[in-house]
Design goal:
Number of strands of chain A: 8
Largest sheet of chain A: 5 strands, antiparallel
Strand content of chain A: 25-35%
Shape of chain A: elongated
Largest interface: A-B, 37 and 35 residues
Number of domains of chain A: 1
Radius of gyration of chain A: 21 Å
CATH superfamily of chain A: YjbQ-like
Oligomer: homotrimer
CATH topology of chain A: Jelly Rolls
Structural class of chain A: alpha+beta
Strand order of the largest sheet of chain A: 1-8-3-5-6
């Protein structure tokens, strides 16, 4: 089993935004060399989300209005959390959209349906924030792994590339 | 570490439905032979959910009314996404109910509380849709694995079944 | 790959409560000895949540009011599920806040942003309920694992602690 970790950084100039981060997650997967496993993508901040949905601007406009209706920003004084802060609504919006997504990795690729894309949902922007990408899984087939290990112990052992390398 | 992948197919004749897919996921787990690990079950479509709750018809009726109140289908023209489509509400309902569930596997079984059941939540049906089941974990104990590997390299080596086989 | 499992128990004297369970999950991780991997923390009951957010009492007060507005407890008779029960609203609240969290483990620690804390969200308390902690990952580096395995097969082999032990 192999693991990989990377932080992605975002600084959104507006309070709220949806950013398609699928290319960055795909780049992480490529870099990891992992072929079978799971990737966890999560916001490291509690006023932001990572979620999977459609990359369609009309839908993102609808999400913005819908979330504002479910958990309105105003009146700011309507939330007890807002003492010296004004982001209580962002903590609610993030719960509706979720903190994390877990995606299957199959044959070295994100195992997605046709329209699935990964989004970073910012609900309290205008500052630098982080997303964590953690991947665990297999990068080699079992025989290749054993060959590598045996080579480490007996350097003279001839290493033959396995079918999965 | 071992991995397993299967797609489940659903074609719901109505726009919305909740289907208990626990038996199908259990069949996948059996087929995988994995005894310790995690199973990811996710909708591959962005107008459907996979979630864990109670298999009780009264509750499902309540969910239907509640989701329709939070994210109403009508008026269809109230959503900017609905240009040539009428499923914007389904994208909202799916966010409330979630895209995926991750379930622990212990001793070859779904490690569930008494009432936990896995559901496919359809919010825009009347067409064929897919659910992904991805399992990663251990199928053998460590000594058995090594014995198998050693046998692969030295065919004459006598393989003794380990306690976990 | 190694796996670890533990159940945590909670008996909340009120109907609803939010409890910070980060210390218990950290204790599980310590006990597991796993250094790289994923931890799944999930409610084993369908009227409770596990979620990640801020440990701030004002926010928890806001969550309580907000969830009650989205999915009110009263009138109890307004839910078809409430035949001999009165907890239909708890099944809704749990869907908004989520069943589970998956957290990355890096270098033997929960890989968290500054303010991330894990909470047990109770929506139908006054009875004993369970949370599952399941961890999968690597506890040793690869060479140490192989040394242990070789030692198991050839007891005379001298075992040298690897850098990751």
């Amino acid at each position: 089993m192999k693991s990989y970790r990377k932080e992605l950084f975002f600084e959104v100039p507006t309070r709220r935004a949806f950013i398609n981060i699928t290319p960055q997650v795909e780049a992480c997967l490529m870099e990891s060399g992992i072929r079978e496993g799971l990737v966890l993508v999560n916001a490291m901040h509690i006023t932001a989300s990572v979620f999977i949905n459609d990359d369609e601007s009309g839908l993102h406009h609808d999400y913005e209005l819908w979330l504002e209706k479910i958990a309105p920003h105003e009146p700011v004084s309507g939330y007890r959390h807002n003492l010296g802060e004004d982001n209580a609504d962002a903590h609610m919006k993030r719960q509706v959209m979720g903190r994390e997504s877990v995606v299957a990795i199959t044959d070295g690729r994100l195992d997605f349906g046709t329209w699935e894309q990964i989004f970073y949902g910012e609900f309290d922007g205008r500052r630098r924030k982080r997303v964590l990408v953690k991947i665990i899984g297999l990068s080699f087939n079992r025989i290749s792994c054993l060959q590598l290990s045996v080579t480490a112990l007996y350097p003279g052992w001839r290493q033959v590339p396995g079918p999965g390398v």
